[in-house]
Specification:
It comes from Urochloa decumbens. With about 350 residues, this protein is an alpha+beta fold. It is built from nine helices and 16 strands. The strands form four sheets. An eight-stranded mixed β-sheet has the order 1-2-12-9-14-7-6-5. A four-stranded antiparallel β-sheet has the order 8-13-10-11, with no helix packed on it. Strands 3-4 form a two-stranded antiparallel sheet. The radius of gyration is 20 Å and the shape is globular.
Length: about 350
């Protein structure tokens, strides 16, 4: 029987405690070394910041809406102030996830994303899937959990320790859902669409996933990515960043920009579905995570997707004779299948969907 042990790499947290140099499977090809893809000049244009309270206010909404449209056209992402999430909830949830990642391996494995120790599934604790022997691996472990629809949560994958984890994640999920709906209505207005157009694309079967990313210290940040360059697949991602340790970078006009770690600010970026629905007016940003030699880093990404049977296509109201559809229509489940295949190769599926 063929040896398929390459499909199940060691958990990176365990690996990092044992090695002085990263194994070759984690080292990027020379042309993609993080050190050779350095960020731009010292004085970079800052990441756009949107004040959510102004975006929703009677006064100031138009100005903030214009800022939102410009941010999504030129960056595909923005930082959010005055989002309404209690700072204590943000801190408590990140601290609880840190406590989980620091538990003994045997305890964490109760939430494993492997069936019978060898068959990968999306949900649970562990590595991302490995599609081929020559796939370059990322330097992180993750806990990936379906949070919506609520009645489809697989609680067997949700940590029981620390005891506060489940209640904190439930509360955070509800607050993110409110923020998502508000942002999507503002995006629809910025596109000149009916305010509820994007929100109504979400059925009661639309999935949302919470992904806790744990990046252990890496002995060679110049050779290894925390996460390789990619865009997100869904409609919207809400990211809660480590408030002390940076590492996220975004590509804009061929130049990599550092996203500053900013305590209690959220980072929101659109995904490929939203780029398609906007017919390319908004851009799904390519981003990556670099590693750190001395400190661990934790982040929480909340991915908001669409019902797998939902057809993704440019909004009809945005199309006319001089601006035809720039993307093929495709079911969400078909897009996801192509997306993950390309992600493993370090390429973008959305490029193959363009007309």
């Amino acid at each position: 029987m063929a040896d398929e042990s390459w499909k199940i790499p060691m958990l990176v947290q365990e690996l990092a405690a044992k090695v002085q140099q990263p194994p070759s499977r984690y080292v990027q090809p020379e042309q993609y070394h993080p050190v050779s893809l350095a960020v731009g000049a010292e004085k970079q244009e800052p990441i756009p910041v949107i004040d959510l309270s102004r975006l929703l206010a009677v006064d100031g909404a138009d100005d903030e809406g214009s800022k939102l449209r410009l941010a999504l056209q030129s960056w595909g992402l923005f930082l959010v102030d005055n989002h309404g999430i209690e700072t204590s909830l943000m801190d408590d949830l990140i601290n609880a996830s840190r406590e989980f990642f620091h538990l003994p391996l045997e305890e964490k494995q109760k939430c494993s994303n492997l069936i019978d120790g060898k068959h990968f599934q999306v949900e649970g604790y562990g590595n991302d899937p490995v599609a081929s022997k020559d796939q370059t691996l990322d330097w992180l472990d993750r806990l990936h959990l379906r949070v919506e629809p609520e009645d489809e949560r697989n609680l067997v994958h949700w940590p029981e320790h620390p005891n506060s984890f489940r209640a904190l994640l439930h509360e955070y999920t509800l607050t993110c859902k409110r923020i998502k709906d508000r942002i999507l209505r503002a995006m629809a207005k910025a596109l000149g669409l009916n305010e509820d157009y994007i929100v109504t694309q979400f059925s009661n079967k639309a999935p949302s996933f919470a992904r806790f990313n744990y990046y252990p210290p890496c002995p060679r940040p110049d050779l290894v990515f925390g996460v390789k360059p990619h865009s997100d697949s869904g409609v919207l991602t809400i990211l809660l960043m480590d408030k002390d340790v940076g590492g996220l970078q975004v590509l804009r006009d061929g130049v990599w920009h550092n996203v500053p770690s900013s305590p209690h600010r959220l980072l929101i970026n659109i995904g490929d579905y939203m780029e398609i629905m906007s017919n390319g007016i908004f851009k799904s940003p390519v981003h990556r995570a670099v590693t750190n030699a001395g400190k661990e880093r934790i982040s929480l990404a909340m991915f908001h997707g669409l019902d797998p049977e939902k057809e993704i296509e440019p909004a009809a109201a945005l199309l006319h004779e001089k601006q035809p559809a720039r993307y093929r229509k495709m079911k969400a489940k078909e897009y996801l299948a192509g997306f993950y295949e390309h992600f493993c190769r370090g390429t973008r599926f959305i490029d193959s969907v363009k007309i």
